[in-house]
Every structure is written in C-alpha cells, then in structure tokens.
Amino acid sequence: MLYLSTQGGHESDISSALMQGLSPDGGLYVPEELPSINASQLSSETIPSFAVDLLSPFFENSSLSPVLGEICRDALNFPIPLHSLETKNGDLAVLEVFHGPTAAFKDVGARFLAACMERLLPEFSTSDTRPVTILVATSGDTGGAVASAFHRRAGVRVGVLFPKDQVSPRQKHQLTCWDGNIRSFEVDGSFDDCQTLVKAAFTNPELNRVHRFSAANSINIGRLLPQAVYHGIASLQYWRAHGSRPNFIVPTGNLGNAMACIWAKGMGMPIGDIVLATNSNRTIADFLATGHYETRPSIPTLASAMDVGAPSNMERLRHLFPDLGSLRTAVECYPVHDQAIRSQIAKDYDRFGRLWCPHTATGFWAYDNLPESRRLDKAWIVVATAHPAKFNNIVQGIVNLKEIEVPSSLASLFGLPAQFEPLRAELGAFSEALARWDE
Q: Pick from 50, 244, 312, 398: CA 20 to 30 A from residue 4's CA?
C-alpha cells in the first residue's frame, strides 16, 4: 500500500512514513485508499489478535508485516474495557482507553509506534548513524505517553515540548520525570506554539542537515492506525452482542482520536454516527457550522489536552472529505465550555457513581445534549480518554473527594524527580537547545 502526502507532493511506503513522521513536503501521510475489511471474519477474542487482523493490510509487503503480531502483543498488553452504564432511557456505554502506563489513550498509539520504530531502526541506520530525534508537541497527555514508550530505547531520543502553565500539575510531572534519552522543554507559549516549533524544525533545511527528525504525535500515521483498533473492537463486540451498530462520541482536540474512529468506520467496522466533543476551542465546530476554516490561538480550558486552535489532523479529515456536505454527513461536533464540564463531572458522579476526567466529561455532555430521539433510538459509546487521577486538582473539588485513587503505574512516575528546560517560542532558541543536546 502506498501512503500519500495530504499536500500532494510525495508518496511513501509504510516504513518510511513511520520513520519520517511528516512528509518532506510538509503534509501528513494518509493511505492511498482504506482497505475494505469484512467485520464478520475478524477475531475479537483478544485486542492483539484483532489488531493484527485489522492492521495487516496497512503493513502488507513491508518488513514489519512478519512481526506485526509480536508488535501488537508488545504494545497492546493492557485492557481496554467497554462498560455498560445504567440509564433510565437509552443504551449507553463507556470505552475506557486509559489503562496503559501513563493512564491516557495516547499509550495505545505511542507504544505501537515505539515498537515499530525499534524494529525499523536497523533497516534505516545502515547509511545514517545519527540518532533519531523525535520531537513531540503536547497539550498534556501525548508527551508523557511518548516519553514512556521510547524511554531508554537505543538509537532514539525524544524532545517533549509543552506549554507553560497550561497542563495540570500531575500532567507536568509526567512530562518531566524522565532521564536518559528524554528531554522536556517548557515553552513560554501555547500548545499551538509548541506545534509550530516542531513543524518549523521539520521543514528547516539547516536543522535537518544536523538532526535526523521524526514525529510521534498524531501527525505520525503510526500513532493513528492502532487507535482505530479500540474503536473497531468495541464496535464489533457491541454488534455481535446486540446485532446493531453503536454510535461513538469521541473527545478530541488535534483530531487524531476522531480520525482513527473515522478510518475504522471507513474500513467496514460496524460504527454508526460519529460525534466529536471539543472544549471551548471551537475551530472544528465553527468550520462544520460555517464552512469557513480559520485557525485561532488556543484557549486554556479544564480539558487541557484538547486545547488546540489549529488541529493538525484537519488536513487528513479534509483530504478524506474534500466536500463540506460529505464531511457534515460523516461527523458532527459539540463544543463544551468549562462550566458544563464541571457540571457534567458532578452529575455523572451522582448518577453513575463514576469519575470522569475533564476530557471524558465533554463526551458525556455531548451525549446528554443530543436530541432525545437520538438518545432513545440508538446505542452510544463514549470514549473515556484519561484517568481522572491525572486531574485530581480539578475533579476532587467538584465532587468533594479528599483523594482519587491513583493507578500504580502512574504513582510510580510521581515518585521520580522532575527536570525540564524553559524555552522561548522561537525556532532560534529551539535550535540552540537542540545543539546543546549534541554537546
């Protein structure tokens, strides 16, 4: 299978697309066409076996194809449970994708990408012995997941860029508790500034002569493909149990999680409607409403990992649906402000006895604000993206709890010392910081 740039100027095989992250012309890689999957023939007994069935066409004839099963077993070795919720009316479930090492859905894609790149490095290092320098802009969760996935892997180093004062205290610690091949940079700006620095580095000829860059956030197709797995297997499990297609509500900021769900449906998985939940950053919602696409500075919110004013994966979404009418048929979007997030966390703790992180709360707010006929007539799955313990500073006060139990994997990270480097949101300053890495 060929992978094409959304900018139209480059094509690649899967191995090169994974290692490059971003196309040389500045575009994002997309499959030449989505494979057609017969859902009835897929195994849903385990997540790794399902992942192999779903993803095999994307790796056909590549050096990763023979070891895809090994990669999936290594990367997807934690549960992704689907839980039904008791409601007075309607059919509602929550898909928990936060049981990986850093308690966020980003672990799925980061661990898969790291497992792939570890196996590809010898193949790509015969003529270039420079370490691969992965640059990742993060609005909260991606950086921690990528750092965890690549920590102490030979031949790879990771630079994590996060916005100053715009992540939760526990998120910040998780972004800065690493040593060895991981460096963290606190950018004096927004997530969009972090993302702009990464893209500028990728497209700067002088920096590329010195460094061997790659990407591990959702601009890398290796992050998105495995995320299609949990949407796909949840839909298949529901379909086999109930004989109908569930609809999905996906909290999203940079559109990676949403794009993976859209691709899963496009491959033939039994997915019905797809609703996107965002926070007060309205770029996606306003585009769908007006047809006019305009990026804008991001706004800090309680759902900080979704504070994105210029979502990268909009390129992939518009490439797949170049016509606005077809795009509006494929997805809809509900923006959710901070007070609604607070209210939803309190409301659902009362009615379900469950705690949501602020991002997951946007998904449940969207569900509650669907037209009543759609809630009654259709089954819905809300994707829960992060463990609430990562946002204890927000959630505990809302529900009047003294403490939220912390997953053991997360607790072990909190015991490590933090270290990071302040960074101006300027390419020159970033270039100097990268040069110091080589000293």
A: 50
Q: pTM for this structure?
A: 0.92
Residue tagged 């529901």 (tokens):
238
Write out pLDDT tens, residues 415-437: 899 999 999 999 999 999 999 98
| 384, amino acid identity | A
Contact assessment for residue 249 and residue 383, using Cβ atoms and an 8 Å cutoff: yes
- Provide the residue count of the chain: 439
- Give DSSP secondary structure letters for 108-158: HHHHHHHHHHHHHHHHH-SS--SPEEEEEE-SSSHHHHHHHHHTT-TTEEE
- Distance, CA of 407 to CA of 34 (rounded, Å): 37
pLDDT tens-digit series, residues 353-399: 999 999 999 999 999 999 999 998 899 999 999 999 999 999 999 99
Rounded Cα distance, 210 and 227, in Å: 32
Which residue, 145, 170, 136, 161, is CA-closest to 75?
Answer: 145
Amino acid at 127: S
Beta bridge partners of 157: 133
Locate the domains of the chain by residue range.
65-105+222-409
